[in-house]
């Protein structure tokens, strides 16, 4: 690894994640993370996983890290989000290539800091898994790799939607996508539930997705979804906090991780929900129209 990146990595590793981080995130984001459905994807042992970029606040407290950071080029300079840093490392039969985002420019510092702390905490946890994986140890066979990156899905005057993707590969692979959506004008975190008047949206959206799944399976060879009674765990409805993002055209996109509603060959899948079927359950048309 480049010496400057190594310096920054070690400096970041020495900074503990605040114990109150979960409370800060929960208060600012008004939601709790839920476990991914586990019936269809391969669960790696605790000693196998990973990826990472390092801890966000360090540049403010460590001159060494700040100096190293000044030498690392920053890319993707988009209005409210930049690449904080990228880490590439190989260790025996394990490797990582990880980027982490950093949101800036919000006056709501509680929200901004909680999101950036969440990204850093995720990355730190992934790095610790990488470092302790069997594939990263000498005289161990096997293979493990992880790619962690992000993509700005929407960046308008009103909305910022950020997608983070983690792809882990061992004997098989698993792709996980996570989304955050922010109202840039009011500087609040948008949850799926906050878009709707009541819980009816769960059934409305779910019914439309099942219709789309059936249509795709009938018209597109190779498309397959877990929606029949013969499936071990057929898709019935979305979670109340299902992953989503909002497009620049104000359309609602519902996202599913790999294996969540379809075979692994389908990868992660997403569905655009027609606004016309949501009109009666939407709080308003500020975001979705």
Automatic annotation (TrEMBL):
InterPro entries: DUF3298 (IPR021729), PdaC (IPR025303), PdaC/RsiV-like_sf (IPR037126). Keywords: Membrane, Transmembrane, Transmembrane helix. It comes from the Bacteria. Residues 193-275 form the DUF3298 domain. The chain crosses the membrane at residues 41-61. Residues 88-163 form the Deacetylase PdaC domain. This is Anti-sigma factor. Pfam families: DUF3298, PdaC. Signal peptide: none annotated.
């Amino acid at each position: 690894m480049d010496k400057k990146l190594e310096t920054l990595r070690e400096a970041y590793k020495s900074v503990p994640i605040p114990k109150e981080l979960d409370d800060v995130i929960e208060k600012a984001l008004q939601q709790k993370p839920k476990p991914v459905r586990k019936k269809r994807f391969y669960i790696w042992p605790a000693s196998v996983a990973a990826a990472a970029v390092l801890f966000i606040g360090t540049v403010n407290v460590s001159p060494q890290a700040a100096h190293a950071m000044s030498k690392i080029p920053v890319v993707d300079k988009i209005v409210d989000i930049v690449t904080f840093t990228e880490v590439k490392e190989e260790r025996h039969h394990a490797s990582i290539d990880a980027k982490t985002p950093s949101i800036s420019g919000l006056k709501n510092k509680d929200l901004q800091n909680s999101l950036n702390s969440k990204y850093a905490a995720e990355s730190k946890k992934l790095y610790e898994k990488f470092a302790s994986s069997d594939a990263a140890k000498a005289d161990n066979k096997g293979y493990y790799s992880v790619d962690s990156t992000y993509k700005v899905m929407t960046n308008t005057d009103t909305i910022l939607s950020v997608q983070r993707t983690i792809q882990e590969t061992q004997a098989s692979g698993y792709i996980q996508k996570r989304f955050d959506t922010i109202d840039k004008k009011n500087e609040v975190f948008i949850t799926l539930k906050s878009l709707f008047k009541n819980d009816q949206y769960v059934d409305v959206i779910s019914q439309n997705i099942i219709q789309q799944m059936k249509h795709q399976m009938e018209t597109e060879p190779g498309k397959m979804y877990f929606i029949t009674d013969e499936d071990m765990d057929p898709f019935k409805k979305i979670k109340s906090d299902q992953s989503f993002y909002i497009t620049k055209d104000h359309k609602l996109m519902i996202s599913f991780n790999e294996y969540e509603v379809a075979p692994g060959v389908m990868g992660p899948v997403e569905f655009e929900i027609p606004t016309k079927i949501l009109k009666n359950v939407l709080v308003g048309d500020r975001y979705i129209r």
